[in-house]
Amino acid sequence: MLKYSKIAGLVVFVFLFAMCNQKSKNEADKETILKGSIDITVDETIKPIVDDQVAVFEGTYYDAKINVKPKSEAELVNDLLNQKTKVAVMARDLTKDEIAKFEKNKINPRVTPFAIDAIAFISSKSNNDTLIALKTVIDFMQGKSDPRIKGLVFDNPNSSTVRYMKELAKVKDVPVKGVFSFKTNDEVIKFVSENDGMIGVVGVNWLSQPSPNMIDVIKKINVLSVKGLNDNQYYSPTQNDLAEVKYPLARDLFIVNCQGYSGLGMGFASFIAGDIGQRIVLKSGLLPVRTPGRKLKIRNQIIKDKE
Prior knowledge:
Elements lengths: L1 H29 L5 E8 L3 H14 L3 E8 L1 H9 L5 E4 L5 H9 L5 E15 L6 E3 H8 L9 E4 L5 H10 L9 E3 L3 H10 L3 E6 L1 H4 L6 H4 L2 E3 L1 E3 L6 E2 L3 H5 L6 E8 L6 H10 L1 H10 L2 E2 L19
Parallel strand pairs: 1-2, 1-3, 5-10, 6-7, 6-8
Antiparallel strand pairs: 3-12, 4-8, 4-9, 4-12, 4-13, 10-11
Protein name: Phosphate ABC transporter substrate-binding protein
Pfam families: PBP_like_2
Keywords: Signal
């Protein structure tokens, strides 16, 4: 009797395993690199550039549907590690510990760099000073008061901008006094525009590509030029200063694909890293990882316009 029970249990296990494999195969069959539907989790500080890429991708490949889910960096990474999301767009590369966790679960994430972004410091137009030293901000992050800064304003306590600035300042936690946080970059921009002396910390893409309801608000703020820790010059988060590696708050953007098969995540990553995707990055005000080519038509004769 025990023998038959073991055999029956084995049959059930094999059946369930086959069903799971068939389900995964069916999901892969429904989705290819250019068709199907997928959810991608995106760092909220870089959402505008991803929205642009998705709009053009879906407009080019009509059978593809990409649902963008913006989250803080901490939430995004947690979702990746817990396999709640298969594709994510991040403002940093994976760490060694994160890669080790993926390998432990037999997952080989494909990481594709596609742009160079910048963290921008902003202030109200009522503040005539448009220059700031990075050391001044770092000192404030370390709890040292400064009459030139009434407060630092972040989008989210778990955001990539907070993590970035904490690493620069080499602090575990931000000061309790003088540091404010909201939920979105738009809320930070609006608050700073209405409060003199506040320094906002936002992803520059929110400034170069504001939503229609934020255009007038953007006109009320200054994007500050920043002096690095080992520099005597001030630089702005422009494409030129990013390309010349002069702006001290630059960061690389990546798309991380953990699907494990040739699905829409692979297609979207290839699109972003390709010619069209890189042109979209260039137009957005960020710096593409590779400069899109230009086609020149050379004529042997000059054709004069008819009078």
